[in-house]
Design brief:
The structure holds two protein chains of two kinds. Chain A is an alpha+beta fold. Chain A has 15 helices and nine strands. Chain B has a single domain, classed as 2-Layer Sandwich (Alpha-Beta Plaits). In chain B, 24% of the residues lie in helices and 45% in strands. The chains are: A alpha+beta, B alpha+beta.
Amino acid sequence: MRIRVRKKNLFYLLAITSSVIGAVVTVIDTYISLEYNINPWSLCLVIFIAGIVITFILSVILSIPIGGKPLGARIDPSFPGLRLLRKEEVPYQIMAGMGNAVATVGYFFIISIYQDPSTILSFFEVVILYLLITESIAEKNAPSMAEVESSIIVTFGAIMASFSFTGELNLKGLLIVFLVLNPAWVVFSIYQRKLKLLRINGRHNDAINIRFWNLFFTTIFTAILVYFIDTKHFFAAIDALKYWPIMFLSMGTTFFSYIFYIRALGLGKASVTQAVKSSTIIFSIPLSFLLASYIPLSFYESIPQLVIKVMGIILVIMGVISFALTEVRAYIFIKAKTGHPSTDLINDIWAIKGVTAVAAVAGRYDIISKVRMRTLGKGYERIIRELEEINGIEKFEWHSILKEWEEI
Amino acid sequence: MDFINMIKAYILVLTYVGNLKTVLEEMRKIENLESIAVVAGDYDIIVKVEVEELEDLMEITNKIHSIKGVKRTNTQVIEKEIRE
């Protein structure tokens, strides 16, 4: 039986689930970097090699048909089973693979320097603003004030939540985050989203195949990167494969975190998905606390620091909620003038920023379009203005969506 | 199932005043509805359906018609679609 849920709820459910699993991954990765003496360059390669193996095993298991559908269809309903890469996916996967490889090399370099990885990595949260700017440029539409406010609240909240009094604020670490990690992550996110929005055989692309093939390309790029940095790290990575159980645990957990993250990317904008995913910081703090007594995690908190962290967490939650309240969607029913080819009309409407679907229909109307915008006032005014400029539209009717449920 | 040849349509639904909640509850029980949106405008609900045959579309329309509180429906069959 298929379940019908509200799209908005599904988006937040997926992004938050990904964050919770992501918090577990953060703890495992911290443990690996503290407990195993592997240099960061080798570690990031060995983890991808182990990752591709465990991801392949998990994808094959998830391809087993149960009740006429692959097991993985319960995690992503679009999953048809593990398949070969499609030609149209290749350029996107290359970009996403390069982004992931560069971001991960930076990430492992940082967590190997600092015992509490959240210290410098807190500035990774600024990636929300990077994504917001990228999307604003791509959509030729300046972000709304509400959008800017929400992004800044989440970003500053996440920085406060992970800021450490005892940890040093290293310029080198900050530069790696701002100039390497964040831009690489933007490329990774944007292209993963493009992949999720691709339609394969008339149906949505699935997160499991996207993840598997992304790891394939990422491993190749990481191997090349590590080989050229120093060949001895490359061979040390092969040697580190003897620690495969913990690597499988880390990358097996990461696999599920990414499946939910990629699915969320297909439902919302990359910046908003990233903002919600920043709640990883909220879950990783108590998790690190809980596990500190069982595994050798170095974790020290003073009372003022805890107060600041709690304030940061509250800001992240408030920011995410305020993001959630600023998206507006609508259907526009369009009646065309006679003598205008509907194909041209569809393309003209599709070119309007914010249009997420255009359908030529047979019935009382000629075209039904679906739009998404940040604020009703600004978005409505702009879309209406652009529609009025299109030749061939006789009249249109605007229907703002108040609530929506979608089949998952 | 061949997803390429699926028939898609929008069903625009108008309800009698005060019946929206109960109509929605009943509608959410119907199979093959891709999405259900409550809207503000000339219509109250916009349903998107995806079926294998036109006969299935008729069946869904009939089911919607049989819900108490539905005043009128308007079915728009999708000929071509571009989406994200």
